[in-house]
Specification:
Number of helices: 8
Distance between the termini: 9 Å
Number of strands: 10
Structural class: alpha/beta
Radius of gyration: 16 Å
CATH class: Alpha Beta
Largest sheet: 8 strands, parallel, barrel
CATH architecture: Alpha-Beta Barrel
CATH topology: TIM Barrel
CATH superfamily: Aldolase class I
Length: about 220
């Protein structure tokens, strides 16, 4: 059976971005609710963007150390499918917010140089035990700043036990995502800066090329299985 890697295109800010993501074949889009980010959107903007989202595409809201009230306000206005916590939230805090707004959640794990495979397994266990709404880890590169880094981490750190459940992020691009899919077989890949013409400005052609590169990795797996 062919493995089909899911694709999340993150940091969309305009109706044109949403249309381009859908046409490219994205499985999910990401909206950033972190004001310092150049990709930030307000709850009102998000509501307008999601009004144009076709059925069966998951909408993910990225939050960084947001309060319960802040997340509730966004979800009341914008019908997000899923939450993504990208700050210093504890398992208990993630669980409380997710359960209050009744949404599943991803937890970003920002990988440092000293991170081990055991650290990833322990984090997966902690969040799984804390809430049935935990959907999986999103693996990104450590940075002093919050949000995506646009930098690749050492993929060999990812233990086989969780690779098939993980969302791979951090420095993915048209140039490297085919190899990532071939070697890791992640559940999904997540890209933001790798599909931009300039910081915060998405490029429809790069969206298309990125999804095609992911499918090339999937097709390679089919031919080698």
């Amino acid at each position: 059976m062919t493995h089909r890697t899911r694709v999340k295109l993150c940091g969309l800010t305009t109706p044109q971005d949403v249309k381009a993501a859908a046409l490219a074949g994205a499985d999910a889009i990401g909206l950033v609710f972190y004001p310092p980010s150049p990709r930030y959107v307000s709850a009102q903007q998000a509501a307008r963007l999601l009004a144009d989202l076709p059925p069966f595409i998951t909408s993910v809201g990225l939050f960084v150390n947001a309060s319960l009230g802040e997340v509730e306000q966004v979800v009341r206005q914008a019908p997000l499918s899923m939450l993504q916590f990208h700050g210093d939230e504890t398992p208990e805090q993630c669980a409380e917010v997710a359960e209050t707004v009744a949404r599943p959640f991803l937890r970003a794990f920002r990988i440092r140089p000293e991170t081990t495979a055991q650290d990833l397994l322990e984090s997966q266990r902690l969040y799984s035990n804390c809430s049935p709404l935990f959907a999986g880890l999103l693996l990104d590169t450590w940075s002093d700043a919050y949000g995506g880094t646009g930098k690749v981490f050492n993929w060999s750190l990812i233990p086989e036990e969780i690779a098939h459940q993980a969302v791979l992020s951090g420095g993915l691009s048209v140039q490297n995502v085919t190899d990532a899919v071939r070697s890791l077989r992640p559940l999904a890949v997540d890209v933001s800066s790798g599909i931009e013409a300039s910081k915060g400005v998405k490029d429809a052609a790069l969206m298309q090329a990125f999804v095609h590169a992911v499918r090339a990795g999937d097709n390679h797996q089919e031919h080698t299985d």
